[in-house]
Amino acid sequence: MSNVVIDQYAVIGNPIEHSKSPIIHGMFAQQTEDAMSYDTILSPIDEFAATVAEFQQQGGKGLNVTVPFKEQAWELADELSDYAQAAGAVNTLVFKEDGSIYGANTDGIGLIRDLTANYNIELQDKRVLLLGAGGAAKGVVQPLLEQKIKCLIIANRTKERAETLAADFTPFATNLGAEIRGGSYNDLREQGQFDLIINATAASLQGIMPPMPESCLYEKSDCYDLMYGNRPTAFEYWCEDNGAALVANGLGMLVEQAAESYFIWRGRQPDTKSVLNSFLAGVS
Ligand code: ATR
Questions:
Q1: Residue 225: its pLDDT value, please?
Q2: Which residue among 14, 141, 187, 201 has the greatest number of ligand 1 atoms within 8 angstroms of its CB, and so is best to mutate?
Q3: What's the CA gap between 86 and 135, in Å, rounded?
Q4: Ligand 1 in reach of 226 Cβ (< 6 A)
Q5: Which tens digits make up the pLDDT trace of 236-245?
Q6: Which of 42, 92, 195, 257 is positioned for an S-S bond with 104, CB 3.0–4.6 A?
């Protein structure tokens, strides 16, 4: 009897023990009766490249990359997808037969699929507000603009970061007929109401609501926190209390970005609804 060789995948980060990715990919593999393993790898903070190389040498086929290594993964990749190039960050690595490394970023597609397919939100011609201008925000700008939104306003505590991020994407937005601008939270007082408000700040990790003026929100605003936790975030509570139409967090985005990574690795699109439903029913 010959040994069955199982393709190996993992998620690498620091910390990593609370990652839901092994459960998600385990469910995808089960659905498709796919022979693959998916583990967690805790990489020492200053040994990311060496830890990746070791996994690759052991025959690993691909990695998901999470905090704080997405920028380092971008640098490590020999070839990048368009979204990875634009985001300056990689969350999916593919180890090719010739030994080279392909880097993709599926976070933005994950967000768009969650908004449009799971929540049935129509993005075309919408006014969108993005809170934050760090790595998480940068990863969703291009995919949002591609949905033909009317305008994207980026607000950040450090105003200059928002202005730079908006300036970086101005040619891309202009080509699509969209407006893009960056500024401070205070500047939002003159910006009116938004159809979609996305929290891409790390404030939720600190239990803090970013200082967004109430005037941004009206009864038709959909509000989405890229973070998720066991309890609603401060942003979710605030939006709920202030009468948002919809309040959601990044659990669906997590499942959708995983599905896109799975597709890149395995060439098959898994069913995400059943996985999301399992989480909502209490799998953790
Ligand atoms: P990530 O990769 O998670 O985006 P990051 O690049 O460090 O991490 O960016 C964190 C983002 O959250 C930034 O936009 C940051 O604002 P600054 O650029 O001014 O630092 C934002 N942020 C963090 N804590 C915040 C808080 N308490 N209130 C508002 N914004 C906050």
A1: 98
A2: 201
A3: 11
A4: no
A5: 999 999 999 9
A6: 92
Ligand 1 pocket mutation, candidates 70, 157, 160, 184, criterion most atoms within 8 A of CB = 157
- Is the minimum distance from the CB of 156 to ligand 1 under 6 angstroms? yes
Q: What is the DSSP letter of 199?
A: E
Q: How confident is the model at residue 3 (pLDDT cuts 50, 70, 90)?
A: low
The predicted-structure confidence for 128-139, as pLDDT tens digits, reads as follows 999 999 999 999
Q: Residue 133 CA: which ligand 1 atom is closest?
A: 14
Is residue 2 predicted with pLDDT exceeding 60?
A: no
SS3 177: coil
Q: From residue 207, how far is each of 13, 202, 233, 247, 261 by CA, in Å?
A: 22, 9, 7, 17, 30
Residue nearest atom 12 in ligand 1 by C-alpha distance: 201
pLDDT at 173 over 80: yes
Catalytic residue numbers read: 70
Kindly give the pairing relationship between strand 36-42 and strand 127-131: unpaired
Whether the CB of 203 sits within 6 Å of ligand 1: yes
**CA-to-CA distance for 130 and 134, rounded, in angstroms?**
11
Confirm or reject: Cβ of 250 under 6 Å from ligand 1: no
Cβ atoms of 185 and 132 within 8 Å: the answer is no
Query: How many angstroms is it from 164 CA to the middle of ligand 1?
Result: 15
What are residue 113's phi and psi, to 5 degrees? -65, -40
pTM value is: 0.95
Spell out the domain ranges in the chain.
7-105+254-280, 108-249
pLDDT at residue 229, rounded to an integer: 85
For 7-105+254-280, CATH gives 3.40.50.10860
